[in-house]
Amino acid sequence: MKKSMKKLLSVTMAIAMVASLTACGGKSNGTATTESKTESPKASGEGSFKIGGIGPITGSTAIYGQAVMNGAELAIKEINAGGGIGGAQIEYNFQDDEGDTEKAVNAYNTLKDWGMQVLMGTVTSAPCIAVGAESSNDNMFQLTPSGSAVDCTKFENQFRVCFSDPNQGSASAQYIGENKLATKVAVIYDSSDVYSTGIHDKFISEAGTQGVEIVADEAFTADNNTNFSVQLQKAQDSGAELVFLPIYYSQAALILAQAKQMGYETSFFGCDGLDGLLNVENFDKTLAENVMLLTPFAADAKDELTQKFVASYKEKYKETPNQFAADAYDAIYAIKAASEKAAVTPDMDASAICDGLKKAMTEISINGLTGENMKWTADGEPDKAPKAIKIVNGVYTAM
Amino acid sequence: MMSFISYFINGLSLGSVYAIIALGYTMVYGIAKMLNFAHGDVIMIGGYMVFTVVSTMGLGPVAGVLLAVILCTVLGVVIEGVAYRPLRMASPLAVLITAIGVSYLLQNIALLVFGSNPKSFTSVVTIPALKLANGKLTISGETIVTIISCVVIMICLTTFIKKTKAGQAMLAVSEDKGAAQLMGINVDGTIALTFAIGSALAAVAGALLCSAYPTLTPYTGSMPGIKAFVAAVFGGIGSIPGALIGGLLLGIIENLSKAYISSQLSDAIVFGVLIVVLLVKPTGILGKKISEKV
Lengths: 399, 294
What we know:
The complex is a heterodimer of chains A (399) and B (294). Chain A has 399 residues and is an alpha/beta fold. Chain A has helices at 2-35, 62-81, 101-114, 125-138, 165-178, 194-207, 229-237, 249-261, 304-317, 323-342, 350-361; strands at 38-39, 48-55, 89-96, 118-121, 141-144, 158-160, 184-190, 213-220, 242-245, 267-270, 292-294, 366-368, 371-376, 382-383, 388-392, 395-398. In chain A, strand 2 (48-55), helix 2 (62-81) and strand 3 (89-96) form a beta-alpha-beta unit. In chain B, strands 1-4 form a two-stranded antiparallel ribbon. In chain B, a hairpin with a 4-residue loop joins strand 2 (130-132) and strand 3. In chain B, helix 2 (39-56) packs parallel to helix 4. Chain B is globular. At the A-B interface, helix 1, strand 8, helix 7 and helix 8 of A face helix 1, helix 4, strand 1 and helix 10 of B. Chain A: This is Amino acid ABC transporter substrate-binding protein. Chain A: InterPro entries: BCAA_transport, De-COase2_CS, Leu-bd, Leu_Ile_Val-bd, Peripla_BP_I. Chain A: Residues 27-49 are annotated as: Disordered.
């Protein structure tokens, strides 16, 4: 009797556990749908373009996804208020992929069911490559604001707003060389990550021609990305004047903290992956003082377009926009310009729109937040000049 | 030479964290004969507890660590009572799967409560770094505290087991559960005590780990947990000095191979060494040969 009571109890416990698990699942689904934004104009229906967006709203790169979601939303609101694309309003639906390839493909399918005609996304490289395989099959026009890996524009239907990884690598080497920031440079990169290796490889090959000597070239992997004492020690011993960090901000925050722990003072230079550093929860901003990063967008730039964008972004989302928000904003305006050039209409199907946009993208030139006179090649690469910014007193400052 | 000393000391510090975590694995295995794969996630919960108390509520680091120790102790006992005790008579495989289940449960609860964005951890160590040899060698406060904590914990634990009645009961239960019960030892109580001690140590390890490598995500505990498990096997699972030696060796090998062989291959080298050790000495460095009872 006692034994059967015990069995009964454990069965009940097991059921309770499963129930609580499904409850968790249900809840997280709930937040995902409330977090994904659907921007539909009042007069929706036949005459509106359906633009889908995919990116990480949660997860370790959530800062990027949220910025893209908001930046694009801002641009769409402005366009809708100004009469839409060739008179047609835009409907907008943004789905979370948590920076995960599988979830990105699921999000893509969800958006297709919703009736998406143009895809603005995805935000990070690996999901972008995964979604690209699907979107090229469907001949769905895809413009990624920030997917920088080479393969993000592998197919004809894919374009990007940001620089590709190799372009960032060579631009960084050129910037360091031309501005005489350092002659001896140490590199710490993530050898298990496509973004980081892409920049790293090109940087190393380009450094020699810029009079920059690589004195330490250290790697880490995704499974071993918390202890950087050895890499930093080697950089210090090599006498490097500058440490180049072609990595994402979560590891960079750790590297900065550990450099301080070991009393290593040097300058750090990174690429767009460092953007978001100042938004890490509980991060000591003094650690990031004087960190430089290559980015096409600085929120304190004096031109009218940037100031207007920053003001309305701050008003709506209560924070200073980063370059991902700017990339997304430009992406939407590029879609608008190309759509008008190709004279596509909302009643066309996604494939027909894609054919029109593919051709029109190489013919347009827009003045965006991330570059003046941005043009695109048929390979999907943007043509614009790189800029660098520095973190001073906890804010981005143009260099 | 200075950099070698620096690599070595950093490895010692990393190894000390592994050793403290490995203690939890080795004690539970020695006494309950089960692998508690949720141990790494108790570390993560400890880390979040310290983070909440120190950074969100604004209390001191000592209060943070104390509260984390208390919470993790309770958590360890609850996990044992709810998930493992009903399976005491079940096959070891069932218990192992349950442990993996508990591990995912803890990770997902943390994901739900704290979100997956990484949080920057404020170090609980406030003592300044030690500068030696005209500033050529800097030993951070975290490193010093970690190594000292490891030594103190080891001494206390060994004394506890040798000198106290509860410690002797643990030894007896690990020797022969059935005979211990016949001798009037409360086996369930002793196992619960083991989980309590192991989880309290996990909280300390969490605070030290996150102070030295200041980031916190729901997956913070998984990789150190696996490495510490390897350390426990390396030193001889079930043996407390074995956990210490295994942990320290693992940390030092990892850091030195990172420094002198390849920073990308360090994990491969660590696990390669484990395979070699187990081929030569299947019970680990200090492991006893136990004849399996059927």
